[in-house]
Amino acid sequence: MTVKEALLKQLKEKTARIGILGMGYVGLPLAVVFAEAGFTVTGIDPDKRKVDSLKEGVSYIPDVPTEIAARLVKSGRLKATTDFSVLKDMDAASICVPTPLRKTGDPDMSFIMSATEELAKYVHKGMVVVLESTTYPGTTREVLLPMLGVKNSLKVGEDWFLAFSPERVDPGRTDYTTINTPKVVGGITAACAEVAATWYGGAIQHIHMVSSAEAAEMAKLLENTFRMINIAMVNELAIMCERMGVDVWEVIEAAATKPFGFMKFTPGPGLGGHCIPIDPLYLSWKMKAYQYTARFIELASDINTNMPRYVVNRILEAMNERGQTLKGSRCLVLGAAYKPDIDDIRESPTLDVIGLLQKKGAEVSYHDPYILHLHTHDGLEMDSVPDVMAAVHQADCVVIVTNHKTYDYQAILEAAKFIFDSRNALGKAGKDNPKVARL
Ligand code: SAJ
Q1: Distance in angstroms (rounded) separating the CA atoms of residues 190 and 133
Q2: Minimum CA distance residue for ligand 1 atom 23
Q3: Domain 3-217 fold
């Protein structure tokens, strides 16, 4: 029996021991899916708080109910440790670590590098490794292969197996989760893809194999670049419509009646989150090595990045038309999270809007039911106002930045002196209303 045949047997029989490096919003749900499928899974994370919580059977990820974590930990199917040396006993390892941007706008590969450096100490014959972190095409072959295989004199596709399978976790989503979201898998070799697909296929409902790790890496970047560019396009449409005195929201609703060949996106005060504004820049960065400028990505990034400034200038103009100055006015910003009904503030445009309003001399406060404290880009600490309706009454200007469902928009409209609605949260009630200006 070859090394590959022996590993395939373990994976099919679910006797293969699984290690997940990085137990965040991707790694923990993935570990649970493998454990529920019958594998014994060990989560490995340098954050002792996460590990201690899991050892107690307590989940810290909203998408993973504690009762499920507790049951799997109790049964011995799910373990957790900060000790990377357990990898020497693992047959399969998945790397689910962050891939943010540096301040310079270049990829921050430090998390992938440190996880790979640890894994390189323990990778062995008969092991399969899958990278899940969103990254530039070529990472698996150019970074992981030399660090894990070449350095350890292991022949990839024979002694060990290496693949890329992009994470597609949308935190808070319940219709598509890790188990039923189709999973793309691409290997360094065909044998690598076969082994990785057999592993993942034993737990995830639909596997879509591609011919290489690079194809899988690029597929993920297409998915999120598609969103980033289309959001930028409707943001620019909002700017153009405003110049012409056309209601962009009416235009988008009308276009969205087309049952084919159109996908609705809506304009907003900027692009937040740890995926959409960031992933495409991994691609444009990589293309520089091919002397190619990814103009769509760069243009879209410029437009999205400029939206907070555009919103604040629109507020300035609207206040001016009302005979008020923004300087010295009390501005209440509603919604700090980067998108509605979640508690994640990463890259949120609210932080830019608050900073820009403050720079114009406004007295800014904010409210967010999910985010009770924040610090601005200028390092200011702020607490969410305790009583949102009292704050609405007192404000000279209410700025709707994130349209959480929990807000009573009718009551806000009645109580406010003036509202800038950057999300069409007020709907038709905000159209042609003298108290309301819209994106
Ligand atoms: N946004 C707009 N207009 C839109 C859509 C989004 O301004 O029409 C803004 C949001 O307010 C937010 C940012 O863009 O600030 C990103 O929003 P998002 O809906 O793309 O949400 P994310 O960042 O959580 O994206 C995730 C991604 N999931 C993965 O990468 C696995 C993305 O691929 C999903 O399509 C998206 O969730 C989703 O559909 O919810």
Answers
A1: 21
A2: 273
A3: Rossmann fold (3.40.50)
